[in-house]
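Build the 3D complex.
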Amino acid sequence: MLSRSRITDEDHPLSQGKASVWNTYFQDIETIEQIDKDVKRTHPDIPFFSAESSFARSNQESMKNILLVFAKLNQGIRYVQGMNEILAPIFYVFRNDPDEDSSSHAEADAFFCFVELLSGFRDFYCQQLDNSVVGIRSAITRLSQLVRKHDEELWRHLEITTKVNPQFYAFRWITLLLTQEFSFFDCLHIWDALLSDPEGPLESLLGICCAMLVLVRRRLIAGDFTSNMKLLQHYPTTNISHLLYVANKLRSKMLL
Amino acid sequence: MGSSSGQPEFDYLFKVLLIGDSGVGKSSLLLSFTSNTFDDLSPTIGVDFKVKYLTIGEKKLKLAIWDTAGQERFRTLTSSYYRGAQGIIMVYDVTRRDTFTNLSDIWAKEIDLYSTNQDCIKMLVGNKVDKESERAVSKKEGIDFAREYGCLFLECSAKTRVNVEQCFEELVLKILETPSLTAEGSSGGKKNIFKQNPAQTSSASSSYCCSS
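Done.
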């Protein structure tokens, strides 16, 4: 809420100035509405997030708080759709801690870890960095190069023959850390590997993405643009342990 | 790339793009059209791709529909999706006025900037008419906008499925009436008999009018 005394005479509701309290206020309202809408749409199939219960409602409130505080603290990025998907597994794990003393601090703990995780990924959310070496495009290019290095034939068929631009599928794979590609609980499994990787989550993620392509190699090679787009945008249910095994093997092979 | 049968399973392939603000119901509209269902969907990140087969008259059509993310952050990336589209559907939410004003402020400009197709057919769609009591944009305003920008216009509800099929069918009919677009969309590009049709009829364009 705005306190009356903080608004100077020069400031007014139509001001577009950066220092305008009014402007900040309206911007915040917009962000809050967007976050509100997206948190409600986060995992509508999982009762923890979206049941008609006070538990689910309080979980949604916590998630909204975290996303809003992050947006306020990171003015260059604010809130970008998809952050809700990244936050969900983190918050879920902390909130379900069997130790009640720990789970009661889930909101604060999840916030800390969310900030920590995004410190390595937030550049992908920043439109101004799209064409820079730290932006999303360069991460997608790195994946493409990784595939090419590992399996030239597959790379050629995908990108040259069937013209599937890796951006069409890998944008979501990378910015959302695979949260929309697998079931929520399979994701927790994948994230265990991502977050415990000594080389950092991004290296691990790119390795897993490459392994995902390699695992459906035969179908991709036999496919045309349409079927390949469908396959990669709706990745089939997979044995996650096997996927991680392939990703690991692939990476150790690359290092040789 | 061709199917082993040698006969393409469609006569025309058209690329259709869905654009508009976040949360207006682009993905819901598409889901309602392709699988007759309505669900709470998570926000689209990047782009979503769906295919729908339609038969109109005697013609078999394959629609490749690109459903783009609405949030501003994704706009630099969506620009490449406009390339080669024969149809563009601009969606707004009839209960949220800003999603309508953004059409002229943002989306119409995006089309001008990125669409590679001069004759590309545009369609304006006001979604969520099931929430009539919350309406913030009148039908008349929609019609006026469509007239000004030279688009087709419909109001629909992805939830109740009112007018959903019509959105896509009217767009496709209009594409089919546009020789330059049907020439591009002819299937396979190599072996289809329809490919030569528009080119041939260009010398006798009157016959084209009669045939439709």
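Residues 97-114 of chain B form the longest helix (18 residues).
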